[in-house]
Amino acid sequence: MNFQKLLKEAKKAQQKAAEVQEKLEAMTVTGSAGGGLVEVTANGHARIIAISLKPEAVDPDDVEALEDLILVAVQDAQNKAAELAEKEMGGSLGDVGGMLGGLF
Questions:
Q1: Residues 6+ apart with CB under 8 A from 10
Q2: pLDDT tens per residue across span 26-40
Q3: How far apart (Å, rounded) are the C-alpha atoms in residues 31 and 8?
Q4: CB burial readout 63-99, b (16+ within 10 A) else e
Q5: What is this structure's pTM?
Q6: Whole-angstrom distance between the N-terminal and C-terminal Cα of the chain?
């Protein structure tokens, strides 16, 4: 493969990666805990963008339980976002990597 073609393919891969990053910014996942008492929404970059609490999740006498539910829901949302990103990046960039002899 000549150098010019390699550079052209690398530029295509870079553009494709930028498109995937933009797509992930717009995609969302929702993590939950306590059977839906706490829901956390994150974008495809695992940035938390919303938290929803059902009234019955809030017990003034057991704040620690609510804290645990929030933590579990955040972790669930982050795990789902990571899976989404892996799926999107693997599917979109995998074919380009093959063209570049596995460089990406």
A1: 100, 103
A2: 999 999 999 999 999
A3: 40
A4: eeebeebbebbbebbbebbeebbeebbeeebeebeeb
A5: 0.73
A6: 16
Q: Where are the strands (E) in the chain, listed by range? A: 28-33, 38-43, 48-53
CB atoms within 10 A of CB 29: 20
Number of Cβ within 10 Å of residue 9's Cβ equals 18
Residue type at 71?
L
CA distance 86 to 92: 10
Going 17 to 22 to 27 to 31, the CA torsion angle's sign is positive
Q: Is 26 helix (H, G, I), strand (E, B) or coil?
A: helix
